[in-house]
Amino acid sequence: MNAATIAAALMLLAGVLSAVQAPTNARLAGAVGSPINAALISFGVGAAALAILAVALRSRPDLAAVRALPWHAWLGGLYGALFVAGAAYAAPRIGVASTLIILIAGQLVAAVLIDHFGGFGVPERAISLERLIGVCLVIAGVFLVRRG
Length: 148
Known about the structure:
The protein has about 150 residues and is mostly helical. It contains 6 helices and no strands.
């Protein structure tokens, strides 16, 4: 299996787990009193799982490379925390499908712009008519999912 196929399969799995994560964390939020508490617990469990995996794989960071990172490279956890807390809040109010399709629309708009400008160090990929049509179709999907 080539790297692109493995990457696509991992993202498909991540998409499935994102759909499951929203109602799971919404239920947790109800039990612990807030989406912030649910996100905190969720990240604690995730951090513990990653720590166990890092130890098992004997994975160690390159400290010189870590020190050379730009400031924005440290914000990934913040983005994830906002996603988890936001999805835990939104899922019981607007539904899992609406929560995720709105999330995906936002991701696509940002992704096309990041690709176009080569933001955050990714290779530049110009905005094409096909990409714009794809984004517009997803945004249309937001309205169809919300309406249905």
